[in-house]
Design a protein that fits this description.
single chain; two-stranded antiparallel ribbon; 385 residues
């Protein structure tokens, strides 16, 4: 025992000596500048530059890798359009009304045209995006025939969700049509002074029809998808893969989970066609409606973009073959289920309980303050301040 004590004392002395000798050199100083890190992983940092190597393995074909690279670029472009469209505000409202003599009016119209032109061109990018999205989506969907297409299906679901979000934002922006009307009026008065006037005139007419249509991107995509052979199997596989991701906890962030839920609901709409025009999503044996219904009943309302939200039951009600009886597997059908779901996300439903909590806290606050005074807490706090 004495030997152990002596050994312990010696070890402590050696440790103290080491600390005295090396501690000043091992001190870690905090960084002077804050380091910002963005926790957003890149799905494809190399843009599948090694896609040719997958061909002999059978895991992923070069065509599928090329399609995934194109879809990821299309998704990034669509997200930029979402941001530009969501933050768009009316420009025409700030422009003065043309007045004075003809020369002054013409100069004012030309100035208004020059001010509005770059903003209207940004809106036209949405119209051009529709054609690119439909073409690349259908080309990639036609490749989803083998067992190794899960990565391609997930890339398709991300692009499909971006298209749905763009349609929703576009339909809420009445200022787009107002700005286009003022832009066309100004263009009509200064057409002789504008280069490429005929091309601008044709694109203006096309944009007017595009803005007047409700949900033009999804409508064009649906019409094109159902012209493909085997579209029903591919759409169902995409919906089931999104459901598997939700059930298996694949989603790292809430935004990813919300995207999967939106995609599932919109894919049911994409699958459903009018009578005689294609498959019926509520009767199709290839679609696991009970599996999707469990997800919809837990999260019927999810965030869409910014302060916007997506109502999944409302998306399903837009299906051509929707009826309460046909959608019993997908939607809550009893009054108790609907009330419990509403209480899980609706702030208004919780207003009564929140008010009672405020009343209870307000009533107990004076007693808590008197108790703090008795213990010297409030006085000590004021003295320290």
């Amino acid at each position: 025992a004495p030997g152990k004590v002596a050994f312990g004392l010696m070890a402590n002395e050696q440790l103290a000596s080491l600390q005295r000798d090396f501690a000043p050199h091992l001190e870690l100083q905090p960084p002077t500048d804050r380091v910002g890190v963005q926790l957003r992983p890149r799905a494809n940092p190399t843009n599948y530059s090694d896609r040719k190597a997958f061909d002999p393995t059978g895991v992923l074909s070069a065509d599928e890798a090329t399609g995934m690279a194109e879809l990821e670029a299309l998704e990034a472009r669509g997200l930029e359009l979402c941001s530009a469209l969501y933050t768009y505000r009316s420009i025409a409202r700030a422009l003065p009304t043309a007045g004075g003599d003809d020369e002054n009016k013409r100069a004012m119209y030309l100035t208004s045209f020059e001010v509005l032109h770059p903003h209207v061109q940004r809106v036209k990018e949405l119209m051009y995006y529709k054609d690119d999205a439909v073409a690349k989506f259908c080309a990639s969907l036609a490749l989803c025939t083998g067992p190794g297409s899960d990565g391609l299906l997930l890339a398709l679901s991300r692009v499909f969700d971006v298209v749905a979000v763009l349609d929703s934002i576009k339909d809420t922006k009445a200022c787009l049509s107002n700005d286009l009307s003022v832009y066309k009026r100004a263009f009509a008065h200064c057409r002789a002074d504008v280069t490429n006037a005929d091309a601008i005139f044709n694109s203006n007419n096309a944009l007017q029809l595009f803005l007047a249509e409700k949900g033009p991107l999804l409508s064009a995509l649906k019409a094109a998808v159902h012209r493909l052979p085997g579209a029903e199997e591919s759409i169902c596989a995409m919906a089931h893969l999104c459901a598997e991701a939700l059930e298996g906890g694949w989603c790292l962030l809430p935004a990813e989970r919300h995207r999967m839920l939106r995609a599932c609901a919109c894919l049911v709409w994409l699958l459903d066609c009018p009578a005689g025009g294609g498959p019926n999503a509520f009767l199709s044996r290839k679609l696991r409606r009970d599996r999707l219904g469990r997800l919809f009943k837990v999260s019927p309302v999810v965030p869409l973009y910014g302060d916007m939200h997506a109502n999944l039951p409302l998306i399903l009600r837009r299906c051509p073959n929707f009826s309460p009886a046909a959608a019993a597997e997908l939607l809550p059908h009893s009054r108790r289920e609907m009330e419990s779901l509403t209480g899980s996300y609706d702030v208004v439903a919780a207003a009564g309980s929140l008010r009672s909590l405020v009343v209870d806290y307000t009533a107990s606050l004076p007693a808590l303050l008197r108790r703090a005074d008795a213990l010297g807490g409030r006085g000590a706090g004021r003295g320290e301040g």
